[in-house]
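## retry 2 of 3
previous attempt timed out at serialization; input unchanged, resubmitting
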Amino acid sequence: MYRTLLRMPITRSFTKTSLLQQGQVQLDADLSTSPPNPAPEPRVSAGRKRQKNNALKISKEETKNPSGLPDIEELAYNKVNGSAVSSEPPANWEKVLEGIRKMKTLEPVYSLGVDETDSSLPPKERRFAVLLSALLSSLTKDKVADGALQRLLQNGLHTAEAIDKADEATIKDLIYPVAFYTRKACNMKKIAKICLTKYDGDIPSSLDELLALPGIGPKMANMVMTLGWFNVQGICVDTHVHRICNRLGWVTQPGTKQKTSSPEQTREALQRWLPKEEWVRINPLLVGFGQTICTPLRPRCGMCTVSEYCPSAFKESSTSSSKSKKSGKR
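## retry succeeded, writing output
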């Protein structure tokens, strides 16, 4: 999610991508604030689960979730107690990161610039725009989310007051076709009301309070803390970071050698050994790598200069081609 941030002004053509490309992040090494572990969910019978799932079916326009992962807001945040849960870093991790940095195919698939002629957003408005960007980005391609944010900005809907006064149907139309746009429009209205009543139109300044907002999960909250408040509280882990860290063998479930099963488990495992100075840089680095070389399907291991350090190298790509050959024979 992030590159480095922000000595250049943020303008009304603000996008998540352009924000991440501007200036230098002011890192805060204090990671002492962490919310408590969530209470376990009650067990539900299979019949009741089916009824609940049927009741929660979303409209056909909201089923655009190619990753098959749950919405990020459904992932619970778990406490990582710094040195108390630290673990040994994997072998050659520094060589791998340096090798990925040196590859020249790491530019994002697209890039949106900043129109320097536009007037810059005041700090409070910029922070709220960061929060909107995080909410829109869940399970949505960056280009689609950035386009939705631009339409909100063009219509003056980038403050808590403006979102609170706007009609929900208008917001829904402006942010379409982001994934779960109906739910996100509803959550935007709720968030705006909370920000107005509790924070004088600003956004929460702690991870705990951000996680309490409707629709905001760990990935979003960590992104907002870093980009909005320049306060690094954790690693921002999306599907690219989750996938690549598992392929490299960098993360496992606690007490086992099994791969982590969710981005949140990956975040916890990474934070146990990755130095804090890498917490911001690792996301844009692995996202670019995952978009161009270590892709979800048929990773381009032959182009990768760090494949010698990867236990998964050439395995997934060869499996995919062998499956294709078998299906062709039938």
